[in-house]
User: Fold these one by one.
Assistant:
Number 1:
Amino acid sequence: MRYYSWVLLSFVVAAILVVVVMQSAVTSAFTRIGYPDYRILGGWASTSGTVAVLSGVATLVVLVRNERVLRFTDEVVGELARVTWPTRDETVRASVVVIFTTIFTASLLAAFDFLWKNLADYFLFSGSVGTL
């Protein structure tokens, strides 16, 4: 494990995300079924919060103890370390190109839409063409 600290950090972030999602899901489920979210542990925690934290801790334990997940995450971090990231100037230049290309394409599509709408309106609704 060359990148153990980064792997562990990613597992902690994943566990925190599980806590946030579970807190929301359990609170929503309790509200939906009409179950009260009791305050427990001296009043500073709720049932949904406790379930969420226990889910996060369980997630962290499962991730840290699973050898395949550890090896995979270590390889991912290793690959990311070898990526050649663009410089600030390259990123700004590429972003400007994307923005102007998007504006040009949107303008072109708007012009074609306007043209074809007016042509269709002229021929279909003007009454200048004979009716059948």
Number 2:
Amino acid sequence: MPSNSARLYTVEDVRAITDDLNRYEIIDGELFVTPAPGFRHQAALARLFRVMANYVAEHHLGILFSGPFDVVFSRLTLVEPDLLFVHRDRRHVFTEREFPAAPDLAVEIISPSTVRTDRTRKRSLYQTQGVREYWVVDPKLRQIEVWRADALEPSVHRENLTWQPDAAVAPLPIAVPDLFQDP
């Protein structure tokens, strides 16, 4: 949720904040502070990461990270998607500390404290910056919204989602209900 301050924050300001288990992100200088994610969020993230990581590794597609890892679009915009993918052809863009460009895929798993930001500010940011796909994973509704860079509406997946980050490789089928199973 955004802070009430009119101050513009920079990447350097965010990196100077003492680690307190909150997530600090900035969009156009506006600070967003969110608490550590809850059980459903982390369970869905772990399941999605496991499915995708095996596919990415098997086909040598690129780099898949589970957050936090900084994606920096400018000195006033730093976000930490829950999951990000960068195709192997672009891995040279990474620095030790950040990815200073649009990832090929950014995934946010919404929590009650992030739903508005993830569905509006981050969606707009990712589309404007040229992120090829942005997924909003909703554990409560048990669905994934897929936004493409030029889309006005998402495609909503409640049963199956097919991800194909490289046309030369068979797509990955993802059974959406499996991501939200109770342990």
Number 3:
Amino acid sequence: MLNRKKQQRQKVVGFTLIELMITVAVVAILAAIAFPSYQDYVRRGQLSEAFTYLADFKVKLEQFYQDNRNYGTNGCGHDGTAQRVNFAAPGVRYFTFACDLGATNQLYTITAAGSAGSATGHIYTLNQNNERSTTTFKGSAVTKTCWLIRGDEC
């Protein structure tokens, strides 16, 4: 009899089902808020690859122009014998790059098109006058005279 009274007096330790459900709900709400923010953060990090390489290719084309007085004869950065500016740079993971020459070889437009990861659906351009534009952002066509990173304003 004494043993039975001791067992009744001992407090049960643990979580109730309600406490567990409240905890799961709080974690789910936090995840619903945090995950989209994380995805946007990753996307913006991948976009920086385009800006870095566009600026690098612009410098290389300007150096090519200094040597040849044009931006290429058989394509951007091509001097007729060999391709001097490599638009398939090693280490590029999320974008593909292309360059188009103007009619007189005095104009060019470099295009960065998202090809992998969260960068897919983004297209940025840069020309000889350092004019930047965004033609596709998050998969939608836009006509902005800047490189969009977030939102729809420059």
Number 4:
Amino acid sequence: MHPSSSIQMVDLKGQYLCIKEEIDAAIAEVLHSTAFINGSHVEHFAAHLSDYLRVPHVIPCANGTDALQIALMALDLQPGDEVIVPAFTYVAAAEVIALLKLVPVLVDVDKNNFNISTELLDAALSYKTRAIIPVHLFGQCANMTPITTWAQKHNLYVIEDAAQSLGAICRGELHSPPAERSTPHSPPAKCNTSPPAHAGTIGHIGCTSFFPSKNLGCFGDGGALMTKDAQLAQQIKMIANHGQQKKYIHERIGCNSRLDTLQAAILDVKLKYLDQYEAARYAAAQRYTQALQGIEGLICPQEEPYSTHVYHQYTLRVPNNLRDALKNHLAAAGIPSAIYYPLPLHQQNAFKTIARTAGSLSVSEQLCKEVLSLPMHTELTPQIQNRITEQIKAFFCPSNGRDR
């Protein structure tokens, strides 16, 4: 067995063992109650997450993708309406846009922070544009000040995809939408907030995922939506429950998307540790950066002044066509790494004929050839990271005794 074989991308078992007694007790409580659907733990978790995020309405659901779909359904968009989304991201946001017969409009991203480029938004705008979904990728918020200002100017909804950034804080001046709406498609009057604000609480609706590897992850699938708007919250709850407020009375088309009680109980325990988890991830990221910065041919993640970073991923850029060679070098040493993401959305077969592209997407294409994510989780130790960074240094400095 290789001495580095125990290194993992995400150490879920190690995290569980640290809070095993509390988790096991919470699970046992649910098993004893047999309230597996809509048990009291679901309501308790929603209330506690609402307090943590400082947002009045948190509606749990089955997963993060459902959250995005329900958010779009709540806005009553019509087939053919356009929704702006970054081209370099996980598929979920664009996928639900297409599922609802809307049109994904793909916009390039900033090469330094991986989030949607605010300088390119005007090129994406058309008379069919109704909403924008900024994705807070890898743990850092998109630049929400220009996004919310621009959306306000054009009467667009803002749906935040905070699946990778729960706990991140967006800084900077954030603007509220206008008090009056000039068209029937204009967004609600009061949804945005004043800084500082948690990711997912700035736009009209925020969405998140509790997939096990997320910063706040359950032991299966789970998700939630957040909003400050009481009417939107009511619509979201109705849609997630088969379009009904009263049992068997269906006011609109909905879906069946529930966070089960076991997952809610687990999440309620782990929420108490979220700040501790974020601090551990941040400390690990700083150790990576300290060890790797200054290596020619390697670009460490950039932290922007308008957002804190909770490092769902620690993602390097490896230019000069060296990314795959570095990945193979690490694998040979028993060190895992991952490529998030190997193809931009406009090059995926699923979107080639249904998405609209807004100008050049060259940065997204470049990033897909350069990005490499290193192991990142709450149980990373300096010793483990030293083994990882020493192998990276050996790759870029073969004179130290190792060849590529």
